[in-house]
């Protein structure tokens, strides 16, 4: 079976051309499937049987009613051989889609017999020859299909010439008739098959490209959904980790004061209640964004739909940390300038996460926050000293979502994130955003902490 790169005929509607085919061919295809004719050989066998019956019937009618009117005579033996050869010419069509060249060769061999036994003025054949030539055109490359059919075209003419030489009849006209007939029958059929195959390949290519576009769009949509879910997970983690770490610290202080200083304990519980309400409000803000329908303009667009905080909210963040007993210093240098909202929020969330990590991993250690607006970049640096009574960070500690979230935020805005231990045993987080990339969202991923960094939550 040739392997030509052409799209072979299939059993079902697998191409766009098949899918947009009229309803009648689809019903015929379904009928053949119900009859059990599902493979190409089985369906071609049915085609060969139909052509065989039609050919035999037409030849019997030709010999019975037409030849006498035209003044032609066919002997009994000659008629039987002619009918047998014409019917046998339909049999090779069973192989037309699995062995197209062999099918054409057998059809041509039968045509040689038909030409040899036919009367001089009688031409028999046509349908199996056209089907074989058409199939060769659809399944073989164009050059090979034309070469094969061109080789088959003069065979009948050569057989007619040999017969004329044996019988002593006129040689020129029969040879020309059979040569022209062969060229038209085989080569024109092959050209038609080539045209159909080209259209079929083009339609299949269009379908594949359309399917690829659909798959690309679906993948892009899924990636966008996944990125948004990841971003919201980072938001939820940052808000919850920041507020809950403060609640844990304050709850521990209240536990110590509840007997010795009830009044301070009451103030502590009031603070915990206020922080809990703030935490719930922040979480409602994020969940509200998830539920929000853009442009709805409905009642759901309330104060909870406000944009996330940025560098301008660092003072409130520092005041909250100091209220928890943390020692935090905030320093700003350079001329402040506006950042893209997503970059502004990224700086705030990184600072928030760094403070939460310092409170969890180095409780009581002083923390320094520095915001620098330089000529070519904006940098945020959060540094905490080593906690009293604790050694340097151990690389075996679990690394949580904090550093991963910081790295993803940096990557999203085109910034560079560097984290690691300081020479004094503390920890430093630095986020730097090039000013000419303020709104870039495809910069290289930020560098995360090296193996052995201490666990960050």
Automatic annotation (TrEMBL):
The EC number(s) this enzyme carries: 2.7.13.3
Keywords from the UniProt entry: ATP-binding, Kinase, Membrane, Nucleotide-binding, Phosphoprotein, Transferase, Transmembrane, Transmembrane helix, Two-component regulatory system
Transmembrane segments: 45-67, 73-94, 101-118, 145-167, 179-197
Catalyzed reactions: ATP + protein L-histidine = ADP + protein N-phospho-L-histidine
GO molecular function, one term: kinase activity
Enzyme class: transferase
Secretion signal, residue range per the UniProt entry: none
Keyword Flavoprotein in annotation: no
InterPro entries named in the record: HATPase_C_sf, Sensor_HK_TwoCompSys, Sig_transdc_His_kin_sub3_dim/P
Highest taxon of source: Bacteria
Keyword Kinase: yes
SUPFAM superfamilies in the cross-refs: ATPase domain of HSP90 chaperone/DNA topoisomerase II/histidine kinase
All residue ranges annotated as the Signal transduction histidine kinase subgroup 3 dimerisation and phosphoacceptor domain in the record: 228-293
Protein name: histidine kinase
């Amino acid at each position: 079976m040739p392997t030509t790169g052409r799209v072979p005929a299939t059993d079902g509607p697998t191409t766009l051309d098949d899918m947009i085919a009229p309803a009648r061919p689809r019903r015929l295809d379904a009928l053949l499937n119900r009859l059990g004719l599902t493979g190409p050989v089985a369906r071609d066998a049915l085609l060969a049987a139909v052509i065989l019956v039609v050919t035999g019937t037409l030849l019997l009618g030709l010999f019975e009613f037409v030849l006498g009117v035209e003044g032609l005579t066919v002997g009994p033996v000659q008629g039987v051989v002619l009918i047998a050869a014409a019917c046998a010419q339909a049999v090779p069509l069973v192989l037309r889609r699995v062995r197209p060249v062999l099918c054409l060769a057998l059809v041509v061999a039968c045509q040689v017999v038909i030409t040899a036994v036919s009367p001089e003025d009688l031409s028999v054949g046509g349908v199996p020859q056209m089907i074989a030539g058409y199939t060769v055109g659809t399944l073989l490359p164009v050059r090979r299909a034309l070469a094969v059919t061109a080789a088959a075209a003069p065979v009948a003419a050569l057989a007619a010439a040999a017969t004329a030489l044996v019988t002593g009849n006129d040689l020129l006209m029969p040879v020309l008739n059979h040569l022209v007939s062969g060229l038209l029958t085989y080569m024109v059929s092959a050209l038609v098959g080539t045209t159909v195959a080209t259209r079929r390949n083009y339609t299949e290519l269009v379908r594949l490209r359309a399917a690829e576009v659909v798959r690309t769009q679906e993948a892009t949509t899924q990636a966008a959904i996944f990125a948004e879910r990841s971003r919201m997970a980072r938001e939820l983690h940052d808000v919850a980790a920041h507020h809950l770490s403060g609640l844990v610290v304050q709850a521990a202080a209240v536990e110590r004061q509840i007997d010795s200083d009830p009044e301070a304990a009451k103030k502590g519980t009031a603070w915990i209640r206020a922080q809990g309400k703030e935490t719930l409000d922040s979480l409602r803000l994020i969940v509200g964004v998830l539920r929000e329908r853009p442009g709805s303009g409905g009642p759901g667009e309330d104060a909870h739909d406000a944009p996330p905080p940025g560098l301008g909210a660092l003072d409130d963040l520092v005041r909250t940390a100091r209220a928890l007993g943390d020692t935090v210093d905030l320093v700003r240098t350079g001329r402040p300038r506006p950042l893209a909202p997503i970059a502004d929020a990224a700086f705030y969330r990184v600072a928030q996460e760094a403070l939460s990590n310092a409170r969890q991993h180095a409780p009581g250690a002083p923390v320094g926050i520095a915001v620098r607006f330089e000529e070519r970049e904006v940098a945020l640096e959060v540094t905490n000293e080593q906690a009293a009574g604790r050694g340097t960070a151990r690389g075996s500690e679990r690394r949580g979502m904090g550093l991963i979230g910081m790295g993803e935020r940096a990557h999203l805005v085109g910034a560079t994130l560097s984290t690691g231990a300081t020479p004094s045993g503390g920890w430093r987080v630095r986020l730097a955003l090039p000013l000419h990339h303020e709104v870039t969202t495809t910069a290289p991923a930020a560098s995360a902490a090296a193996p052995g960094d201490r666990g960050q939550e």
